[in-house]
Structures are given as C-alpha cells and as structure tokens.
Amino acid sequence: MAEYKIDNNAISNIIMEDIVNDIILGKLKPGDKLIEAKYAEKFGVSRAPIREAFNTLTIEGIVVKVPRKETVVKGYTNEEIWDLVRIRKFLEDLAFEKVVTNTRLTNLVHDLKNIESKMDMFNTKDYAKLNQEFHLRIISESESDVLIAMYTRMARLLLSLQLVAIMETKNLSNSHEEHKNIILMLEQGNILEAQKVLNQHNEAFLQNIKNHLLKKENEIFQQN
To answer: What is the pTM of this model?
Structure first.
C-alpha cells in the first residue's frame, strides 16, 4: 500500500489525476462505479480526501452521483475528446491574437524559459505537467479572464490527454525543440513566427490524440 506524506488537498489532486487518466485511457468506462474503499487502500489514506476528489470530479462533470449516493464514471465519447482538444487549440489561437498586440513580452519570455528549463524528456508525467504550464502561461498573457477560466476548467482532462499524446510520441525531442523555438521567436519580437510554431506544435498534439482515438476504435471493433 502506498504512503503519501502530504496534505489532503494534494492527495485529492493525485487521486483525481489517477481517475481521469484511467477514464481517458479506457481503463474506467462509462457507468463504472468508483469505490471509496478501493482508492483509500490504493493510496493509503482515509476516505476524506477520496470523497473530496469524487465531489470535485462531480462538479467538473467527469463523474456523476446516482441514487444511493454512488459515484459513477460519466465517460467521454471519442467525438467529445476530439472536441476538447480542438477547443484547446481554439483558445490558444484566441490568446495569441491578443499577445500579438503586446509589445512587452519580457515577463512572458522569462517565465517560459524557466518552465522549459525544467522539462525532462525522460519523465513523461512531469513533462506533461510542465507542457501544460507552458501553454497556460501563454493563455494568461492574453489577460482575458474568460480564456483563462475556460482553459483552467479543462485543465485536468487536458493534462490526461497530454499524457496520452506523449504515449503516442516515440520521441519528445521535436516537442522540446518547438518549445525552445517559441521562446526564441518571442524573445526576438517575432510574434507571428512564434504563433506559427505554436500551431505546428498543436497540430502534432491533435494528430497524436487522433491516433489514440483510432486505436481505441480498432480495439473496440476487434472485441466485437
């Protein structure tokens, strides 16, 4: 049994990541019941952070409460997952349109460099989290509360999808170079070129998710 010497809020986040990852990977399917005792044993914690995790996921629409207070997986169709990743790209496109008008990018460049310096291509989970932090920092530069709120609301699902995309990628070096190039173009004041590189980066992400969804469809077809 794993022991986590951290506060309940951090434990809840770990549990939520675990559940969402299993949903995206198809290990948890729509209608599957989430059992508090199972996660309490898995993470070596009391049921309090488990309930907190379940409640938060219910608010986010990832799971649902049914009669007798059971919590079950809502699940996402392949079409809904595809919609989600396209929404991410659309939000980043809108954010960059606002960044284009910003002539003071010193803080943005500094922050992106700091995030990029921590990226380890051999630690996929940390890489996925830092990648998300990188993109969220660009979104925040738009100074649009609407864009930031929408992006943040999808953060948990997007992180799991980022992990899926990484699993479909044989080599993260291209992704890492694209991050560096985005920073370089911004540092040089070439915002339009930075946006072009970001688009290429996002297209690769979309393709990796598409490959994953096709594999899932093939697996389901073969099982039938």
So the answer is: 0.78
